[in-house]
Design brief:
The longest helix has 23 residues. The protein has 5 helices and 12 strands. A hairpin with a 3-residue loop joins strand 8 and strand 9. With 260 residues, the protein is of the alpha+beta class. It starts with a helix and ends with a helix. It is globular. This is GLPGLI family protein. InterPro entries: GLPGLI.
């Protein structure tokens, strides 16, 4: 009889703990996520000047290293509510570049992206070499491979997923189901939760959330950008191909950056 009573008591404790956990398992439906992007500029510049025989490039690189840190840090903000979001750069807290050799398109991305998961569309404002474009198109379909690896980011448990985008860019993402919005930094979507960590190892850059603030987000806060020459992804790709036709080996990476 004593054994039966003990088992019943244990079952009650387990059920109580499960019920408490369920009550405390909170899901963030709207708010603002602050991201920090780090670009390994030394690695990016090394790739940029690889194969160049003119000593001027190496001298410019050495000069750059004397006045610039290895990692360039920029900050961005993702505001979201239900199935809509607006991603933009925090212009008040950016590290300034002071050398042409450090002018890397991938590291200097400043896209403004309005995403609508219900309609599977996005409106992206892109600044490409003094020209402002407004790119309206459907969301990129990403074939994510979810793994068992996890890590904590900004206080949230995240699971790792891997993918290849733009035919050759390897991407690692960490998402949390505690924030059900299926988006993330830049134009990355399609996971069963919000991406709080993003890395492109071969491109030498990462995006990681530093803070998640659960606050009401109004429609005004999610209003898409309206300035820029209207086009779609295919149209912008053609424009850039024409503009970069004389850029030689640097053209592919530059086009890749503006296609993200």
């Amino acid at each position: 009889m004593k054994t039966i009573i003990n088992r019943i008591l244990i079952l009650i404790i387990v059920l109580t703990n499960c019920n408490t956990f369920a009550q405390n398992d909170h899901f963030v439906q709207n708010g603002v996520i602050e991201f920090e992007k780090k670009s390994n500029m030394y690695a990016l510049i090394t790739k940029k000047i690889k194969g160049e025989t003119d000593s001027y490039y190496q001298a410019a690189f050495e000069s750059y290293k004397k006045t610039n840190p290895q990692f360039k840090t920029t900050k961005s903000i993702l505001s979201f509510s239900k199935n809509k979001s607006l991603y933009k750069w925090d212009e008040t807290n950016q590290s300034a570049g002071n050398s042409w050799i450090g002018d890397d398109a991938m590291a200097n991305l400043k896209n403004v992206i309005a995403t609508d998961l219900d309609t599977r569309t996005s409106i992206t404002q892109k600044n490409a070499y003094d020209d402002l474009y407004l790119v309206k198109d459907s969301l990129r379909k990403i074939d994510w491979k979810i793994t068992d690896e996890t890590r904590e980011i900004a206080g949230y448990e995240c699971r790792r997923a891997n993918a290849i985008v733009l035919d050759s860019v390897y991407v690692v993402a960490y998402y949390t189901i505690q924030i059900p919005f299926a988006g993330g930094p830049e134009s990355f979507t399609g996971l069963p939760g919000t991406i709080l960590g993003l890395a492109m190892p071969h491109e030498n850059m990462t995006w990681f959330a530093t803070k998640v603030t659960e606050i009401p987000v109004s429609d005004k806060d999610l209003a898409p950008p309206i300035k820029g020459k209207p086009t779609d992804n295919k149209g912008l790709n053609k424009i850039l191909l024409d503009a970069l036709k004389d850029w030689g080996k640097w053209a592919k990476k530059t086009l890749q950056a503006y296609s993200l």
